[in-house]
Amino acid sequence: MLLDDLIKENIDLNKKIIVAYSGGADSTALLHVLSDINNDCTIDLQAIHINHNLSKKSLDWVNHCNKTCSKLNIELIVESIEVASDGGGLESTARQERYKIFKNILNKDDQLLLAHHSDDVAETIFMRMLRGTGIDGLEGPKRKRNIGNGILIRPFLSISKKEILLYLTKNKINYAEDDSNSNSKFDRNFLRNEIFPLLEKRWKSFPNRINNMSSIIKERNDDYFELINNKYNELIDSEIEIKKLKKIPNSVVRDILRFSIKKSNLSLPNTKIMNEIIKTFLKSSPGPKSIVSWSRSDREELAGQITFKNGFLIISKDNRRNDES
Question: In the CATH scheme, what architecture does the domain 3-202 have?
Fold first, then answer.
């Protein structure tokens, strides 16, 4: 499939489009494809570059992005952030700060486009597995989801990095090289630079197999939700009567809780937190002060909590954690 077909298939050309533009290969390809579409049919197109101030080349990247957008006649928003560079949470903190800005700039129905591709899917799934993800985490990144007042879209999830580089080479398009990508002290880079090459050397189609598994799990989850929803529809809600849950096997209770949390548009708890929820509310005697809360390390989705009131589990946003992100 041509890259512009992927764009047209996944976005609404009649609504505002903002490209998260780092200047690297992936976002450069995305920006140029959209620029070509804009030349054929005028669209409301902007780009945003976030300067993390973590490299001596940061201002060079800003200048590169400015020149590229000026050449393409695309408005560029440049935001600058300061990220603490000590400790092991630099990746997560930088991501949180980026998403804060994304949320702030998006008006109703604006579309924020990120250039994640199929190689990123495999990396994300591995990262989630290492953090103790549940079955939903194995689906990989969502192609579309709400973010603030707008919509986050990843139109390139079905194509590989090689295909993106081929497009750039064929069209003689320059892009910036982020030297931090070679630094394996960062978890994702460690996987990309140290672990994945070993796996691909042994199993050539390794990333494709991960992506196929992700697609199968998503289809299975969607079908399974329909089955559970048909049978336990009255329980899939933000308020669930504990007495009814205690009559159901724990494995099904976990699914009812997962689907109820998803319905509330909250991040899903990992396996450890889900075990804590079962223990606190179903295997003990909960009271008004009983609470289990959780959040995603990248703060990409809203933090949640479960409390107890009058015999019901109450699923809600954890406003304290969400205010921090």
Answer: 3-Layer(aba) Sandwich (3.40)
Task: Tell me the pLDDT tens digit for each residue of 146-182.
Answer: 898 999 999 999 899 999 999 999 999 999 987 777 8
Which of 291, 289, 300 has the alpha carbon at shortest distance from 266? 300
Mean pLDDT, all residues of the chain: 89
User: In whole angstroms, what is the distance from residue 209 CA to residue 291 CA?
Assistant: 39
pLDDT tens-digit readout, 193-227: 999 999 989 998 888 889 899 999 999 988 998 99
pLDDT band at 323; cut points 50, 70, 90: low
Specify the domain boundaries for CATH 3.40.50.620 within the chain. Answer: 3-202
